[in-house]
Design goal:
Strand content: 25-35%
Number of helices: 2
Helix content: 25-40%
Order of helices and strands: EEEEEHH
Oligomer: single chain
Number of strands: 5
Largest sheet: 5 strands, antiparallel
Radius of gyration: 14 Å
Shape: globular
């Protein structure tokens, strides 16, 4: 249990907004002053390459396409987005995120 005198990490990811979209759910996560938007949706057509999709984007780099991954589960799709973001994000000019912390956060609210 956390000691009440300990301060929460101001850079830790926090959900600042969540809502249902036409095809799934959207989560805005703020971390280190940067807003990360995650869209999570279930397969819509037979042509979709997996059961679940997660895409992630930041408004601070608007010209960059979202990082997107399909997988059998929401958790697997989110983990793949985190892996892709980590391996390709620097070259694209994307900010870094603690994807383990993002995954834990979203898991805690049953988003994944």
């Amino acid at each position: 249990m956390k000691d009440k005198t300990e301060k929460a990490d101001p850079d830790a990811p926090k959900i600042t907004n969540q809502f249902r979209s036409r095809i799934g759910f959207v989560y805005d996560v703020k971390s280190s002053g940067v807003r990360l938007t995650l869209n999570v949706w279930k397969k819509q057509t037979e042509a979709d390459p997996g059961e679940w999709c997660v895409d992630a984007r930041v408004n601070s780099v608007p010209e960059t396409a979202p990082i997107t991954a399909w997988a059998p589960t929401r958790m697997d799709a989110l983990k793949e987005v985190g892996r892709l973001w980590t391996t390709t994000g620097t070259d694209l000019g994307l900010p870094t995120f603690d994807w383990d912390a993002v995954t834990t956060l979203l898991s805690g609210v049953r988003a994944v």
